Amino acid sequence: MLVADDHQALREALVDLLNDVGFEVVGAAVDGVDAVALAKELGPDVVLMDLSMPVLNGLDATRLLREALPDMPVVVFSAFDSAALKRQALDAGAVAYLAKDCTTQRLRATLDGAVTLAAGRAGQR
Amino acid sequence: MSAETARTNGAAPVLADDPYRAVAEHLPDAAVVLFDRDLRIRLATGTTLPDPAWCSDHGVGRTVVDLVPAEQADVLMASYRAALAGKRQHLERPGWRDPGQYWSVDVVPLRGKGGEVSGGLAFWRDITKRHRAEEALRQHRRQLQEAQRLARVGSWEWDLATDRVSWSAELYRILGVDLDVVLTREITRELIHPDDRAMREQLLAGVVSDPSPFQTEFRAVRPDGTVVWMLAHTQGICDQAGRVVRVVGTNQDITQAKRAEQERQRLLGRLYAALEGQYQRLAADLHDGHLQGLAAIGLRLDHAAVRLDRGEAGPVRGVLGRLRQQVRDELAALRRTVAALRPLVLDQRGLAAAVGELAAATRRRAGLDACDVTVDLDGSPLDPMVETALFRVAQQALANVEQHANARHLRVALYRDGSQVVLVVEDDGCGFEPTHTQAVADTHGFGLTCMRERLQAIGGQFTLRSAPGAGTRIQAQVAVQVAP
After folding, report:
1. Does B366 share its domain with B295?
2. Is B367 in the same domain as B352?
3. Is the same domain home to B302 and B407?
């Protein structure tokens, strides 16, 4: 799992939680460019991507990842629960859109689904 | 009608005076004076005499010099003498018996049968009423000109039959046209701004069919190229048959008001832009800071719940400890956001304390060696608008010191100077070239324009002094407005 979020406290809380519920967080990126670079370098199963980030925002980073690593699922994790943003994120190539106030169960289920999807894509190759 | 008459006693008349007497005694407000070559009065008669004494024994046989006040005598004698030299004379003179009385005097030579000048005739007419009317007319004209000058209103008239145009003197002045220019419709048309010409001409043409008054604004271009805004009132004047024969109007120079209005709109635009900028910054603060902070707190709570579900009470304490720290951080961040919006100290302890705190914070954050703060605002509390404006100027100026000045020493003074409140922020930092103020402001966001406009909005003044390597000094000055 790769986590990308520019807010340090949130990034750390997310990494702690995910590690504790059975995901292995292999890296944490602080902006979109960092996220793309770490994804290429570390090859995580799934990228959990914030939208509003400096240097390169999450939507553009998702587009770049889809082009560079089309099998790597991106789950957008945003402070906004907006249908328009969700549509934009899915159009950019994200497999799911989660609001940051979602339940832990929803977060885990979505990430589990993304990991399964990644495994399926890897299997097809 | 009673006539006052004098005649030379006993002596044969040197002049045939009867016809003159007949004229004088039947014309209203008139008198005839016959004089001989020695300028002596031979006959004075009429329904009104400039001086009743002329017709008495005292008058006849004496000269004008003997009978009129000295200040009148010279002029009258000169005209009488001119008549004896064969020249007609016309004078209009004030009387000397009643204030305001005015006389018209025609002096003509009288000739004998051989054609030689044997004397003269002065035909006096009392023109007091006409003179008063003319004087009143002149006064009204002066007052009208004065009023037009004061109000910057010019008037004009367009005679449709002759197509001639006339302007008042003030309209010449407003439009920068020499008074000796012969006006034509073409000249007046050319003076209208090209963008407004068609509209103005169309409206004027419409008056011919509909003479009712209307009001419009248009721009004129003076011969020197400057543009002047006009507020025009126009209407048609009809003859008895109801046909429009003239178009008349007034044009008021409203350029200054227009400029003020444009400046007001510009400032309003900047105000709304500044407000929008504030909203954007606030939204960014809320999204990038507080929303994320709260989301992080939510994740920590979820994490604690996960551990509790697993019956891991011990590790929950670690999560709770991080959670507590996060709540503290979030509270501090929220306080900063609120303070940036409206510092509580300004409302609770006033401008002096707020500026003092700002200066102390600037010294701390910029690592200055010294910060000299002098605050002396004894007296009634200030108008909240003035307090806020001065606070914002201090905030911006001190932010500049912190971010751009690279200073060692800072001096902040806030004091009353007579009817003014003065704020001075001075540093010994790198300074900059003030002639590049606007470019600097635009490039580096020094907020110099904002400070200046903020003060202008409350009638204050902003002064900037800076030079490369010689520090920067800003002074804000506002007339004291005591809070109601």
Report:
1. no
2. yes
3. no
Q: What is the pLDDT of residue B57?
A: 65
Pair B353, B473 in one domain: yes
Where residue B63 sits, what CATH number does that domain have?
A: 3.30.450.20
Is residue B104 domain-resident?
Answer: yes
CATH number at residue B399: 3.30.565.10
A16 touches chain B (CB under 8 A): yes
Backbone angles phi, psi at B424, to 5 degrees: -125, 130
- Residue B359 and residue B470 share a domain: yes
Give the domain range for residue B364.
348-479
Q: Could B303 and A52 be called an inter-chain contact, meaning their C-beta atoms sit closer than 8 Å? A: no
Which of A21, A101, A103 is facing B295, going by the closest CB pair?
A: A101
**Of B215, B236, B253, the domain-final residue:** B253
Cβ proximity of B129 and B217 under 8 Å: no
- Residues A54, A5: contact at Cβ < 8 Å? no
Is the CB of residue A100 less than 8 Å away from at least one CB of chain B? yes
Cα separations in angstroms, B97 against B6, B51, B136: 20, 7, 21
State which residue of chain B sits closest to A11, comparing Cα positions.
Answer: B296
The complex's ipTM works out to 0.89
Total domains present in chain B: 4
CATH pick for A2-117 out of 3.40.50.2300, 3.10.50.40, 3.30.365.10, 3.40.50.150: 3.40.50.2300
Cα separation, B328 vs B218, whole angstroms: 63
C-beta separation of B467 from B434 below 8 A:
yes
CB A91 within 8 A of CB A51: no
Beta-carbon contacts of residue B444 (< 8 Å; ≥ 6 apart): B404
CA distances from B322 to A12, A44, B325, B382, B385 (A): 10, 27, 5, 46, 43
Share of chain A above pLDDT 70, in %: 99
Whether B303 and A103 lie within 8 Å, measured CB to CB = no
* Residues B268 and B310 reside in one and the same domain: yes
Of the partner residues B287, B305, B329, the one whose CB lies closest to the CB of residue A9: B329
Calculate the CA A85 to chain-centre distance. Answer: 15
Q: B214-221 and B227-238: which strand pairing?
A: antiparallel
Q: How many CB atoms lie within 10 A of CB A87?
A: 11
Per-residue tens of pLDDT for chain B, all 484 residues: 344 444 444 443 445 567 777 777 788 888 888 899 998 988 888 888 888 777 766 778 888 788 888 888 889 999 999 999 999 999 999 988 888 889 999 999 999 888 899 999 999 999 999 999 999 999 999 999 999 999 999 999 999 999 999 999 999 999 999 999 989 889 999 999 999 999 999 999 999 889 999 999 999 999 999 999 999 999 999 999 999 999 999 999 999 999 999 888 888 888 888 888 888 888 888 888 888 899 999 999 999 998 888 888 778 888 888 889 889 988 888 888 887 777 777 888 888 888 998 999 999 989 999 999 998 887 667 888 888 899 999 999 999 999 888 999 999 999 998 889 999 999 999 988 876 555 555 554 567 888 888 888 888 999 999 888 999 999 999 988 555 5
Query: Is the residue at B136 inside a domain?
Result: no
Domain shared by B323 and B361, yes or no:
no
CB pairs under 8 A between A and B: 60
Tell me if B430 sits within 8 A of B446, measured CB to CB.
Answer: no
Question: Both tokens of residue B440?
Answer: 């600097």
As a whole number of angstroms, the distance between CA B4 and CA B2 comes to 7
